[in-house]
Amino acid sequence: MKMIKKKRSNSRVLKLVLLLALPAIGACSLLERSSLLNQSKFSIKSTTKVPEHFLEQVETKSRLEIPQGMLELWQINREQVEVREGPGVDFELKVSLLDYGENVIITARKGVWRKFLSLDTKIRGWIHYRRLSPLEKKIDSIVIPVKNLEKVFAIRDVNKVYSYGDNKQQSVHIPKGRGFPFMKQKGDKNLVWIYETNSVAWVLDSEVQ
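Predicted structure:
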């Protein structure tokens, strides 16, 4: 009789342990799935699709496969190219130097100066446009971690964007403070990636920084 009671008691303890452990197991599983999702690769669509609702913020560890046409790509044309903190000789030189053949993305222009991100060394800064030449080899697309792209943030609620390709205006509601990975600048617009629809859109330069 004592043995039966002891077995029942042990069984109850085991059930209680399992019940307490299940939520934790479920949480781990969700975290693992979330981590896998954040580390996935997105092949960007070359159209603009505006979501019904924008999230206030998006944190992602994803990699983006970006068609070449969405980026301004150049190649360094000489050895030991100096990099500056800003667009001009009055700005300090960085310790890092660029080597011949490095591929860079141009993200902004100011006069004869170009702001860049090196795809090879991840160096950022400003260089003179004469240090750049067209790519020697054609690149169809580039895979780059989102964290390596610059971000722009809405400085107010944004109610319009412009389609990639045909430049048509679309109505949206982007909340103030929302950040976007930045592709390139063209005139008074910035090309940004929209996480919710995995597409791109032009946003006015006056509405982001």
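Summary: The mean pLDDT is 81.
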